[in-house]
């Protein structure tokens, strides 16, 4: 049995991680007293007493928590769910399906950064495109996404669920319009792009789930590629993956009557990849739960890999 401490266990991600531990007898949860949740000395003591530590904190607090680890304590393994370490090469990036190298680094590292929710969907689509030479590293990538409001923070959630909320909260709302979204550095670095992508996220009036979409016009590519070839590339890339599923390629007639909902995987821990459109204009989509594969589900999957057990334990 391993000892696990969640620093930030009362936040959304922390609570969802706790939920995924229900029924597991291989984990002992180390809990902090309510009146000491913000006590640095007590947090440091519990961090150093654990085998695995989840950081579900703002960036600065996450960096502080890492500094609490005693210099002679090399057994504590950190899984960071903040944005603080996602582009740090010293940290493993917690998306094992991207490549065998990613998976191995997660397995052997003492420092793992959980991907951001939008970045998970984006990398699931774009990383294979770059790695398989379908787009060059300097391709001008544009992405847009729809997401439930659960990722917006407690204050925004309270407004969405209030009886007196403003009328505009019933409509999809575009944000990060300055093209400075906090996930952009991660999306670029992890996907292997040499240029920052454009990104247009939208928060919508439902609780959780998201779809990240990347348009691809084949006339802009050096080498012609068909929708069937792109779909087959994704199928090969994610073959054998437990938590990523490449969905069947639909005919044009099937697509005409199909609606891609963003909340279908709410409460689940997997991610689905779709190829829509035709040989001239494709729409590549990743659907996931921003609280599942986009946060707590991914964190628990990384823990399982680090522990050397079935990565789906507690997830399916």
Fill in the keyword field for this structure:
316 residues; alpha/beta; Rossmann fold; Dihydrodipicolinate Reductase, domain 2; 6-stranded parallel β-sheet; 13 strands; globular
How many independent structural domains? 2
Count up the helices.
Answer: 10
Q: Looking across the biggest beta sheet, what order are the strands in? A: 8-9-7-10-13-12-11
Task: Sketch the major β-sheet.
Answer: 7 strands, mixed
Shape category: globular
Element string (H = helix, E = strand) = EHEHEHEEHEHEHEHEEHEHEEH
Q: Report the span from N to C terminus.
A: 21 Å
Walk me through what this model shows:
This protein is α/β, with parallel strands linked by helices and 316 residues long. It folds into two domains: 2-115 and 295-307, 3-Layer(aba) Sandwich (Rossmann fold), CATH 3.40.50.720; 117-290, Dihydrodipicolinate Reductase, domain 2 (2-Layer Sandwich). Helix content is 31%, strand content 20%. The protein has helices at residues 12-20, 40-49, 59-67, 100-108, 117-131, 154-160, 184-191, 227-237, 252-256, 292-307, and strands at residues 2-7, 27-30, 52-55, 77-80, 92-93, 111-113, 142-147, 173-174, 198-203, 210-217, 244-246, 271-277, 281-288. It has a seven-stranded mixed beta sheet with strand order 8-9-7-10-13-12-11. The chain has a six-stranded parallel beta sheet with strand order 2-1-3-4-6-5, with helices on both faces. Strand 11 (244-246), helix 9 and strand 12 form a beta-alpha-beta unit. Helix 1 packs across helix 10, helix 4 crosses helix 10 and helix 5 (117-131) runs parallel beside helix 7.
């Amino acid at each position: 049995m391993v000892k696990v401490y969640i620093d930030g266990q009362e936040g959304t991600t922390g609570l969802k991680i706790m939920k995924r531990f229900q029924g597991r007898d291989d984990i002992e949860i180390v809990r902090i007293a309510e009146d000491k949740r913000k006590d640095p000395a007590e947090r440091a003591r519990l961090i150093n007493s654990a085998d695995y530590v989840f950081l579900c904190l703002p960036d600065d607090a996450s960096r502080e928590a890492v500094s609490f680890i005693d210099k002679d304590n090399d057994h504590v393994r950190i899984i960071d769910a903040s944005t603080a370490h996602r582009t740090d090469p010293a940290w493993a990036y917690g998306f094992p399906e991207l490549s065998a190298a990613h998976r191995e680094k997660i397995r052997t590292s003492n420092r793992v950064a959980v991907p951001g929710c939008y970045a998970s969907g984006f990398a699931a689509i774009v990383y294979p495109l770059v790695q398989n030479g379908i787009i060059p590293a300097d391709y001008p990538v544009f992405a847009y996404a729809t997401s439930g409001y659960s990722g917006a923070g407690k204050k925004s959630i309270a407004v969405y669920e209030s009886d007196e909320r403003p009328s505009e909260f019933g409509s999809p709302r575009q944000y990060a319009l300055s093209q400075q979204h906090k996930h952009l550095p991660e999306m670029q670095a992890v996907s292997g792009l040499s240029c920052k992508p454009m990104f247009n996220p939208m928060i919508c009036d439902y609780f959780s789930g998201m779809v990240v979409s990347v348009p691809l016009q084949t006339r802009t590519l050096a080498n012609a590629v068909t929708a069937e070839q792109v779909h087959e590339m994704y199928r090969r890339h994610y073959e054998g993956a437990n938590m990523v599923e490449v969905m069947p390629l639909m005919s044009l007639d099937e697509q005409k009557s199909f609606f891609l909902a963003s909340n279908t995987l709410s409460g689940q821990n997997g991610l689905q990849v779709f190829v829509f459109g035709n040989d001239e204009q494709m729409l590549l989509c990743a659907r996931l739960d921003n609280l599942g594969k986009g946060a707590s589900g991914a964190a628990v999957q990384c823990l399982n890999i680090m522990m050397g057990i079935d990565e789906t334990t507690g997830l399916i």
